[in-house]
């Protein structure tokens, strides 16, 4: 009897431990994120969710454990694939835009680093800005934009290179409540349109429920449980 091949999870975290000095931050974390789904890491400050995201991004290295993106081993023992080779985009809490660059230059930067030719960079940059509602803002500087607009620029920069994985580190926490809610809805629509696998860190349960297909609830450096909210979008890989 033949069996259909089941694709591996887009992200696999296997028995990851991490300490800061003598303080344990992550304790035997295991997580699988199916391809094309959005997983929220939800929990209070200090629970380890941002540390886990930084391990996925390659900004930190775990004390023990393995990380896989699809079938590619990203971390194992002393081996750690550099961040620039992980094919991911990241959106930070503080936008992390370069003030000396225009909006278009900020968005185009990942393409520039990949050696994409100028005409293609311009096309894809405009397309990414259009997706976030800022098609006419390319010539401006980040300082000329509101907080919500700057976060849209950061999102455009994260998606412009069409990475296999998107990482979000509490990207809306610096915005006021009304703006946070409206931008959260826009991001949910965009991420579902893109179909990109994403991990989204937040301490706000309403934000997690509005955006994610699944919520990994973290406490004391461990994932206590995972709740699937939109089972129709979850791969058969997950039982």
UniProtKB/TrEMBL annotation:
InterPro entries: AAA+_ATPase, ABC_SmlMolc_Importer, ABC_transporter-like_ATP-bd, ABC_transporter-like_CS, ABC_transpr_FbpC, P-loop_NTPase. Keywords: ATP-binding, Cell membrane, Ion transport, Iron, Iron transport, Membrane, Nucleotide-binding, Transport. Residues 11-238 form the ABC transporter domain. Pfam families: ABC_tran. This is ABC transporter substrate-binding protein.
């Amino acid at each position: 009897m033949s069996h259909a091949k089941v694709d591996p999870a887009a992200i696999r975290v296997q028995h990851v431990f991490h300490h800061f000095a003598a303080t344990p931050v992550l304790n035997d974390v295991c997580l699988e994120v199916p391809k094309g789904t959005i997983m929220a890491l939800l929990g209070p400050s200090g629970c380890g969710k941002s540390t886990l995201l930084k391990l996925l991004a390659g900004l930190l290295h775990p004390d023990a454990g393995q990380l896989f993106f699809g079938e590619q081993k990203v971390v194992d023992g002393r081996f750690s694939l550099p961040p620039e080779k992980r094919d991911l985009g990241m959106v930070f809490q503080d936008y992390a835009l370069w003030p000396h660059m225009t909006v278009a230059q900020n968005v185009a930067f990942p393409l520039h680093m990949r050696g994409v030719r100028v005409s293609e960079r311009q096309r894809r940059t405009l397309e990414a800005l259009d997706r976030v509602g800022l098609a006419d803002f390319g010539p401006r500087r980040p300082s000329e934009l509101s907080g919500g607009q700057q976060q849209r620029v950061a999102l455009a920069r994260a998606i412009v290179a069409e990475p296999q994985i998107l990482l979000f580190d509490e990207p809306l926490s610096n915005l006021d409540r009304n703006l946070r809610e409206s931008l959260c809805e826009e991001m949910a629509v965009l991420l579902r349109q893109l179909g990109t696998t994403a991990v989204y860190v937040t301490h706000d349960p309403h934000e997690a429920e509005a955006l994610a297909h699944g919520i990994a609830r973290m406490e004391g450096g461990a994932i206590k449980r995972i709740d699937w909210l939109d089972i129709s979008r979850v791969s058969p890989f997950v039982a």
